Structure formats: structure tokens, C-alpha cells
Sequence to fold (384 residues):
Amino acid sequence: MVNKKRLIRLIQKLIQIDSQNPPGDERQIARFVSAYLSALGLKTKTYAFSDKRVNVLAILEGKKCAKRTKRAKRMKSLLLTPHLDTVPAGKSWKREPFAASIIGDKVYGLGATDCKGNLASSLEAINSIVEEEVPLDYDLIFAATADEESGSGLGLIPLLERKILKADAAVVLDADDFEIVVTQKGLVHLLVRIKGKKAHGAYPWLGINAIDIAAKIITDLKKQKIHYKKNRYLRQPTVNIGTINGGDKVNVVSDWCEFQLDFRFLPGTNEKHFLQNLKRTISRYSRDFKIEIQGIQAPYYINPKHPLVSHLVQAMRKVKVKPRISGSEGATVITFFKARNIPAIATGFGTKACAHIADEYARISNLYKGSQVLVEFLKNYEFK
Fold:
């Protein structure tokens, strides 16, 4: 049975451990989580892909584990994965970011919503499962990962790429207010470099102004209509100009300009069409340019009728909270599972609009119900 007082103590302890990224140091919080799970009898191991960047993996074996042999069919496995790191606190806080103070139904602190509240709820759920000696029909894998706030390059990505982390289905605990994320946009981040011809600012006709060219390209891009397959959970594709730099001096015609683009696209389309169109657009105004791709992440979609979704919806309804099937406009780690053919969803119990803000908080009632939801979900989940 979920213990509310124990859960409150747990979230406070987690908030009080500094795991800001950058600079990036998950050692202390990883030790705490590893010790907590080991005390519950789980098989626990840590992995570090860089100094100080520690990930925790633990396994709660299913009920048939005692009968296994080397020849026995492998049991299915379900993964729960929150992350250990937070963004930096910054200087705007009015409350102490590591005090974990409680006022009414709110616990304040860095990471309360993103993602230590979800971490606490999942640990309490596992504790409850162990206490009740609930026999699971699968192996439960728990992965508390490092470096999520900087792209997961020292956390979930290498764990998957090196096949350390293998599962048949995954639930990412990194969302708010009981939403169930079944789809998200893909993204392309890139840098465009335009080359012009330098001249004196008093005689601009003698040069080729790269900034002028970039402005025309950007204006053209923003006017274009992007064809896409509609998705009930997502808005239309977007193009954002993130940065722009160019020129050396006010009285010199700029012979260089560069700008960064953030393109978000929906499932059913891919980045190739956007990149082809971008090259055509730039070619209308310049022949001397370069495009540097800085990052690509595929879009993601899972059928809302998948057992991950249906079982989670049932668990939420049993705890009398309203499930919200939704999509993510931003990138989350669920796409990293796509390349491994692992079905995945994201959910969580943080408080909407509280992630990455000063005086971040989470509602204790949400975290408590979240633990109850996870217990019901884990007890009743069945692979098809």
C-alpha cells in the first residue's frame, strides 16, 4: 500500500540532493537511489559513461523467475525510467531551491516537477509492490538515468546503444498532470552559412550583403506552407529561427551571415522533404552557402489502443484521476526507443508549467495518486 508520509519524506530527500546539469554530477543521487532499491531486494547496478555521470539500473524479477533455466523462454520485461538530473537553479528563486519546503499541498524545490517528483512516485510504487509481495508476470526494469537535461548522451542513449538496457516495452516518467504521451514531433536543428562579398558600407552596390540574403531566405521560409499529415494530438509543423549572426562592422558590407533553424515535423513525414525544400529556397538567393545539420530526431507515434496506453488509462480511472492522452510538441526520450523497436509512452505526475521555472513545485496529492496509479498499472499489466 502506498505510504503518503514515506513518499513525502522521499521527495524531500531527493530534492535536497543537488544534481544540476550543467555542471552534471549524478553520483550522490545515484547512490541514494541505488541504496534505496537494493534495500528492497532488487538487483541493482550503476553505469557511468563519463566521470560523475552515473545511471542506476535495477530489476525486480517476475514471479516465474524461480523456475527459469538457461533453456527456459525469456520473460518479458517492462521498463520504468525517470531521470536523475535537473536544470540549473539560476538566480531567480525566492525560495531555497534545495530546502524541499512544504506549503499546503505543494512541495517546493529544484526538480520537484522535473523530474524528482516522478522519481519519488516510482520508487514508492516499487516499495509498495515489494511490501505487498505482488507477483508480476514480467521482469520490471527500473532505470534512473543521467544527463536527460542535456540530451541523454551520457544516459539513456548509450544504455540503449550498448544494449545494457533491453526491454519489451517502456514507460518514460517525465510528464505532468497524468498525461499519457503517445506521439511527438520530430526535429531538425541546423546551421545555414551564407557567403557574400565584402565592400565599403558607403558603396554597398560593390559588394554582396550576406545578411540581406539571409533575411530574404528567412522571410521566404516563414511564408511557405508546409504539407503534412494531420495528427489529432499535435499542432502543425513549425520553423523557428533560433539565432542569427553576421558582419564584422557597421560600415562594411557583410560577406558572411549564419543562422540556426529549428524545424519540428509530424509523424508520417520526414526531414528529407524539409531539407530539399530548404536547399531550393536558399538557391533562389545564393549559390555560395553551406548547411550543417546539428541534430535530427525522428517523430514518434504509438497506437492509443496499445496495452501500454489502455492499461495506464485503466489504472488512472481506478485511482479516480482523469487520464489525458496527448502529444508532445517538444522532443522527449521516447523516440530513442523507436530505433530499438521498443514500444514506449511517457507519463508523469508533475505540475503543468512548473518545469524549469523559479520556485518550481509539485502537488503532493498528484505524486501520491501517481504512486497509486503506478502500483495498479504494474499489478495488472499484460503483454500481448
About this structure: Residues 260 and 299 are 20 Å apart (CA to CA). The domain at 4-184+300-380 is CATH 3.40.630.10 (Aminopeptidase). The mean pLDDT is 95. The chain has two domains: 4-184+300-380, 186-297.
